[in-house]
Write a structure and sequence with these properties.
265 residues; alpha+beta; Glutaredoxin; nine-stranded mixed sheet
């Protein structure tokens, strides 16, 4: 993707965060990131398959503004300042629980995530003023970046503060981020929400200790892609399309093997 397109999406992300947080502190720079910042990578363990840079100074400005809104939470401030994200491939057993979406409809999480549409999943809560606005703004921009393809992808945000996050509050939150059709925001009982977090290795004991993590799943026979950190909308779209390409290639290979087996029988 060209630099102007990537820069525009990062500017939009910063503006969305600014509007949601009610602050004018977000600085949008018209210049691209410097060579020393745009391509920084983490050193990772062998289990990590890739690391990608978070988009330039303007997105970091959005992170800094969000951090200022939640003084005293040094852990979250440190997360907001990190560069890049950790990418791993793994498998998860989705709990068979019923959750409630922003329209008050009961939803089977297992069926929702195992449906025919590829899924992008994250965890948020509506009163969060640090990492959640960044994650949600990235989802909002991802929907826009996908264009006509957006109706083929399901976005799911699960609240980790079910006592406070009623369907009404989730609906208001969705409106703040201009969520389009296909973005489900879910709440439920404390027991079910904890079970879902644990199933995805995202439970940290308390909502104030939550981590920025996004999951991508494109097909039943594909692994879950776990992205820890703050991938930009462009990077989420890139990860999604990369997985779709691999899934199609795998399906084509499987079909070729099946045809060859049938011919040889």
């Amino acid at each position: 993707m060209s630099k102007p397109t990537s820069r525009t999406s990062r500017q939009t992300l910063a503006l969305v965060i600014s509007a949601v947080l009610g602050t004018s502190a977000v600085t949008v720079t018209a210049q691209g990131p410097s060579a020393g910042t745009a391509h920084d990578h983490h050193h990772m363990m062998d289990v990590v398959t890739a690391a990608q840079p978070v988009g330039g100074h303007d997105q970091h400005a959005g992170h800094q503004a969000a951090a200022q809104q939640h003084e005293g939470h040094e852990h979250h401030a440190a997360l907001l300042s990190q560069k890049g994200y950790l990418r791993t491939e793994t498998g998860y057993l989705v709990p068979d629980v019923l959750l409630t979406n922003q329209d008050g409809e009961r939803v089977s999480l297992r069926q929702l995530l195992a449906g025919p549409k590829p899924v992008l999943l994250n965890y948020i809560f509506t009163s969060c003023t640090t990492i959640c606005p960044v994650l949600s703004a990235s989802f909002a921009q991802t929907q826009r970046s996908l264009g006509d393809e957006a109706n083929k992808v399901r976005l799911v945000s699960i609240s980790i503060d079910p006592e406070q996050d009623t369907p009404t509050r989730l609906r208001d939150y969705a409106q703040r981020f201009r969520a389009a059709e296909g973005w489900e925001l879910l709440t439920g009982s404390r027991e079910d929400i904890v079970a879902v977090q644990k199933a995805f290795d995202a439970f940290r004991g308390d909502k104030m200790n939550h981590i920025p993590v996004t999951f991508i799943h494109v097909a039943d026979d594909s692994p879950w892609i776990r992205l820890e950190g703050f991938p930009s909308a462009d990077e989420l779209v890139s990860e999604y399309r990369r997985q779709m390409k691999q899934s199609r290639a795998s399906a084509a290979q499987t079909g070729s093997v099946a045809v060859a087996d049938a011919a040889g029988s």
